[in-house]
Amino acid sequence: MANSHRAIFFTILLLLAVAAAATASSAGFSPLSPYYYSKICPKALPAIRRVVEAAVSGERRMGASLLRLHFHDCFVQGCDGSILLDATPTIDSEKTALPNNNSARGFEVIDMIKAEVDKACGGKPVVSCADILAVAARDSVVARGGPSWEVQLGRRDSTSASRTTANNDIPSPFMDLPALKSSFQKQGLNERDLVALSGGHTIGFSQCQFFRNRIFNETANRIFNETEANIDAEFARERRASCFAGSGDANLGSLDGSPARFDGSYFKNLVEKKGLLHSDQALFAGGSTDSVVKGYGSNNGRSFWFDFASSMVKMGNIKPLTGNRGQIRVNCRKVNA
């Protein structure tokens, strides 16, 4: 991105930050701020970045996994770190919810970040686990060549979790466009946010169990007229080589052709009917989001980068716990004694 584009990019993000703070203040809560830790622990954000960069460079899937943790956290009770809590007699852990069970990962990296941040902050729990998730998501995107943004900070951690809410509110890979729009609208996110945030699938992989039906069945009833199918026939055949009809649930398929690079190829794939998940291709299937998908797939992904960053800021503002609400966990996996 050229210097002029970067200047415009960060100027508008600053305006978004001011607007977010004003909204939070008017609602009666302590507003989030990108400078929340500047005085109380100025070494916090560099510590997070170091651990994330090491984890992402050491494991090809980790960037996408950390981004997904923040997304799945924010869609359940708001961005409060509830996804990190292990099950106890009083905690109905979200880790065992259908969208997360044997799928959500990166928890050990969050533990490493927490240890390093506490050390950088004088051995005290100053930075919340919810904020760690938000910053780690941003740093993961940057580590994979994507845009940066100013993360709003000052969230506190929940003392509860909800597996039921996770099952109900985290979007499913089998959803069609109306269901996706409804899911995002429930969180205060609009249609453009839906498409931009779905673009996070430009990095990472999915398990076969989540795309098997698409590659085997979504052309079956159109076999004599494949021009009407919403999946490229050759693409489906290629994916069947590693995702079998009756086995291989955990086998991985890349969500786009460059799963280690944050770019606009995800949207180009959708236009070519090569979306891996049903919910991906639903964004380009003759509906109201088609034009946004086309736009993001052009101009070297610049408009996608900008919208993704601003939508991440917006998502990060979903019902944060601030002020005296919640706590700063000593261990991200447990509520403080």
Automatic annotation (TrEMBL):
Compartments where found: Secreted
Biological processes per GO annotation: hydrogen peroxide catabolic process; response to oxidative stress
Membrane-spanning segments: none
Organism for this UniProt entry: Linum tenue
CDD domains listed in its UniProt record: secretory_peroxidase
Cofactor needs: heme b; Ca(2+)
GO terms for cellular component: extracellular region
Cofactor remark: Binds 1 heme b (iron(II)-protoporphyrin IX) group per subunit.
Keywords from the UniProt entry: Calcium, Disulfide bond, Glycoprotein, Heme, Hydrogen peroxide, Iron, Metal-binding, Oxidoreductase, Peroxidase, Secreted, Signal
Active site: H72
Function: Removal of H(2)O(2), oxidation of toxic reductants, biosynthesis and degradation of lignin, suberization, auxin catabolism, response to environmental stresses such as wounding, pathogen attack and oxidative stress. These functions might be dependent on each isozyme/isoform in each plant tissue.
Domain Plant heme peroxidase family profile, residue spans: 31-336
Signal sequence segment: 1-21
The protein's name: Peroxidase
Binding site for Ca(2+) 1: D73, V76, G78, D80, S82, E94
